[in-house]
Amino acid sequence: MIIAANFKTNHTRASTRAYIEKLNTFVTKTNSSDSVLVFPPSSALDSFDLEDNLEVGVQNAYPVEKGSFTGEIGLEQIEEFNLQTILIGHSERRHVLGESQDEVAKKYDFFKAKNFKIVYCIGEPKEVREEGIEAVIAYNFAQLEGIDIDYENLIIAYEPVWAIGTGLTATNEQIEETLALLKQKLKAPLLYGGSVKVANTKEILEIPNCEGVLVGTASWDVDAFSEMVEIAAKL
Length: 235
Ligand code: PGA
Hints:
By secondary structure, the chain is of the alpha/beta class. It is built from nine helices and eight strands.
């Protein structure tokens, strides 16, 4: 399984280090063999001495080695820390920061060519969910346009926009139905994200075709996130 923490615009450099060191100790102690990923803000990227199954990734980067892209980081800044994992297509980048499918696909191609592990996010807004499952699947598939879905280091996170940071989780039936339909086209492991918390981690991880979770808000507390890692380890 894959248990991932997305800090978004939370945590400092100091608190990220303390969090990751505590989490690493926990992963060692529980003997977890699941893949655990942490995406801190780019100001907190660093080199960490970690268990093989605990990895730090970047939440976003510009698809360039280096250059003149004010406010962005590129490959050179990531490689300083030997990081090889990136989140691409998160709904906040698409819907809040206006990243187009074309831009998302360019990022994907660039980091795929560098052999990065890519956690690629898709998910429909509320009005599409209200139209029914066919519209949901069409919307999610459109977010795969221009993406090599057979890339071996691809992980897909299905995160309905209306469930992100809202406290509203999709029902288990909605998650199961959506993942089953996505799985017809996708070989990559599928994660669910959207208001995952300690209390619902187990039931979500038990849904068929669900191979992990991408957690925002509830992951910012290292003890809560560690509990989720432990829940996964026991399944
Ligand atoms: P959330 O965020 O857990 O706060 O809903 C999930 C995500 O954005 O990846």
